[in-house]
Design goal:
single chain, alpha/beta, Rossmann fold, Ubiquitin-like (UB roll), de novo design (two linked rop proteins), 3 domains, five-stranded mixed sheet, four-stranded parallel sheet
Length: about 425
Amino acid sequence: MTTSTAPLPDTLGDTASGIRTPRLLTGAGDDLDRHRQIHGALPSRGADLIAMAQAAGLTGRGGAAFPSARKLAATDRASGIPVIIANGAEGEPLSRKDAVLLDRSPHLVLDGLRAAAAAIGADTAFLCVPAHRVAHLRAVIDARRESGWDATPTTVTATPGRFVDGEKTALIDLVSGGPGRPMDQRRSASVSGVNGRPTLVHNVETLAHLALIARGGPRWFRERGTADEPGTMLVTLAGADAIDGVLEIDMGTPLGAVLRSVPSLAPGDLRAVLVGGFHGTWIDRADVGRVSMSARTLRSVGASPGAGVLRYLRRDECGLAATSAIVDHLASETAGQCGPCRFGLPALADAVAELLARGGAENAARVARLADTIDKRGACTHPDGTARMVRSACAVFADDVAAHAVGRCGAPGGRR
C-alpha cells in the first residue's frame, strides 16, 4: 500500500496529449500578489455564478461528478441561511490532488469558496483539511482578510484522519460539533445539513474551477475537455511503492496517454489500472487503449474517473495481493457504526486473503457473495465502493484466481 507523503511535482512530463498549460496549478502558492497577477481580480458574480456554472457544465471533482450548478441552486432555493463546506479531507491514501492544489494554489480554492458563498447567500464557511494543513491555511486566510482581498468568515477545521473523512455527511457531522462520522441522510444536505441549515459541500478542486469560471466565463471553460465533459481535472498517479505525482489534464484525455507520463512505466510493463482509487474499478490492460478520463468512455468498462486516482499495476505484480492489501485497509478505516462496516468488511477482507492464499472458484464465489451482502446496506457508501472494487478485481484477475489454486501466481515474477 502506498503511503508516501513526500512533496509532489505539479507535472510528470509532457508526453501525454491533453497535458497542456495548467489552469489550476499555476504555481502562485501563498503569494497573493502573484495570484492576482496570474488570475486578476475576482468579479462579484453573486447568484449569476449558478447560471455560469450550469452553462460551463462543471461537475464535481470530488468523485461523484454531480453537476455543480444543481447543488448550488438547490442550496440557494432552500429555506434558511446556508452554510458552505470546502472538502479538502482527502482520506484516500493514493490521492494527493487536493493536497497539491492547496499547496500550489490555495487562493484559487478560497476564491471559489468566496464566490460560491456569495452565490447562495451563505454567511458561514468551513474548510475541512487534515490536521497538519490547518495552521498553514489559517495563515493564508488571515493574510487575505488583512489585505482586504476576502472577508468571507471561514473556519479551518481538522478532519480526524480516516478514509471516510471526505464523505459529505461526515463533514457535516464534524462541523456541527460531532466526531465526523458518516450519517444516514434522510433529507438532502441542501435542505438540512449543518445544525439543520441548508448546506453546500464542494470539493476544493470544484471550488477552484468555480473561481476560474467566475473570471473567464463558461465559453472559456469549455475550451478544454470535451463537449459533454468540459474543463480540466487533477489526476494522481501511483504505483506499488510510491505516488509518482499529480497532473492537470483535459477531461477526455486518453488513459494510455496519461499513463505514459510516468517515466518509470515502460511500454508493455502495464498489467492493469485501478481507476478511481480504493473505491474504484480495476481495468485490464487490454481495455486501457479504448478508454479516456471521461465518465462516458469509462462507463463502458464499469468504471468512472472518481477523484482522479490511477493506481497502475505492473506485469510482475499480483493483482490479488494488491486487492487484498486495499481491502484490509478499507476494513480498518470504517466509522464502525453499521453492520456492513463492522462485520461485513472484515469478513470480506478475510475472504479476499483466503482467495490470495488458495485461489479457486469456491473461494472466489465466497468473495462475490460477501460483496453482494454488504452492497447498498451501509450507513454510507464505504461498503459499496469496497464491494465494487473487489468485484472488478475478481473479473480482471480471474487468471490469478486459477493460478493460486495450484500454488503459483499468475503474474510473471510472482510478486505476492
